[in-house]
Amino acid sequence: MSTGALSKTVFVVVAFGLLAAFPLMGGSYGIDLVTKIMVFAILALSLELLVGSTGLVCFGQAAFFGIGAYAAVLLSPADAPPSLAWLLPACMAMAAGYALFVGALSLRTKGVYFIMVTLAFAQMAYFIVHDTPLGGGTDGIYLYIKPVLGPWIDLDHPLTLYAFTLACLVLVFGFLAQLRRSRFGRALDGIRVNEQRMRATGFATYPYKLAAFVLSGAIAGLAGFLFAVKDGFVNPEMLSWHMSGSVLIMIILGGLGHLRGALIGAFAFTLLQELFKSEAVFGSFARHWTLLLGLAIIASVALLPRGLAGLPGQWRERLLGRASRRAEVNGVAP
Q: Which of 122, 228, 234, 302 lies at 20 to 30 Å from 323 by C-alpha?
């Protein structure tokens, strides 16, 4: 194993270890916040599969996220706790089904047209739940009874939900890491780099892209389910273009092309939001937290073009560049 691969593995193991130990030191607010961050990390991983691995810039990821959340509420009985064994797969299947429908049509376009078509389909889903009584309209709907799995798992308890969300995050991360190393993942990389060449070598690129799109929708539906269970409430804003934009910013902030970048970006983006909203830190200016967040994102993109995950590589290149220049000054071959 190379030094770079080893450092990445160590980072991931340490990060998940810290998340597992966090409930021992974090209070109720911290546990709720980190649960929220982990949900967004799963959502960011779903988009990383499209943007970072396949080169498909989807601006409608919030639709699959919101469908998973609304399905969790609408499919739950009103008088008894729903079973996690069927509710979670159903939510993921509904999100994946809509992704199949959207992907089958939008993947026939390219570039900016693909972005606009995915945005249009997401806005259609948004207005369905916003303007009809199906999803409670603008008021949203509540999930009063949380899912259970026999006597072992009751997601109404914050610690149980935290542990379950962490387990889902680890499974999604591990699955996508293995997927990227598989023949399917290498084909997606080839499509991202040069789709025309992949077609010339005999690959039918459309089924590969559609499969990635559907898988991404299913993972986003998982994140939506977890978000609905965490808050016990869903509203149309979960499907809005603001949410899609936020997830896209997360993976750019963390670093495109890196699974760990999706994790880092979700943590950084959400923590920056909480920091800039804090009146204890910024006083009355906290009301303008979106301005502060925008400035922070612009600065990070300008100073860290590879994202936060690429920061060690940038430092290493700078150090090697300085050593090379010193060697040239001293008359030694670098």
A: 302
The closest alpha carbon to 275, from 260, 290, 263, belongs to 290
Where does residue 190 rank: exposed (0-12), middle (13-18), buried (19+ CB within 10 A)? middle
User: Hey, which bits of the chain come out as E strands?
Assistant: 141-142, 148-149, 153-154, 233-234
Residue partners of 314: CB distance under 8 A and separation at least 6: 304, 306
Q: Is 60 exceeded by the pLDDT of residue 319? A: no
Measure the CA–CA gap between 84 and 93, rounded to whole angstroms.
Answer: 14
CA distance 40 to 48: 12
Dihedral sign from CA coordinates of 173, 152, 73, 34: negative
**Which amino acid is present at 189?**
D
Report the C-alpha gap between 70 and 225 in whole angstroms.
8
Is the Cβ–Cβ distance between 28 and 198 less than 8 Å? no
Stronger pLDDT, 323 or 172, i.e. the higher one: 172
Instruction: Kindly report the number of other CB atoms within 10 A of residue 286's CB atom.
Output: 15
Q: Which residues pair with 310 in a beta bridge?
A: none
Question: So where are the chain's domains?
Answer: 34-238
Q: How many residues does the chain have?
A: 334
Residue 191's contacts (CB-CB under 8 Å, 6 or more residues apart) are 54, 55, 198, 203, 205, 208, 209
pLDDT digits (tens, 9 = 90+) for 280-298: 777 787 788 888 888 888 8
Share of the chain above pLDDT 70, in %: 91
Write down the residue that tokens 């159903």 correspond to: 90
Q: Please, is 67 exposed, middle or buried when counting C-beta atoms within 10 Å of its C-beta (0-12, 13-18, 19+)?
A: buried
Residue 311 has pLDDT above 80, yes or no: no
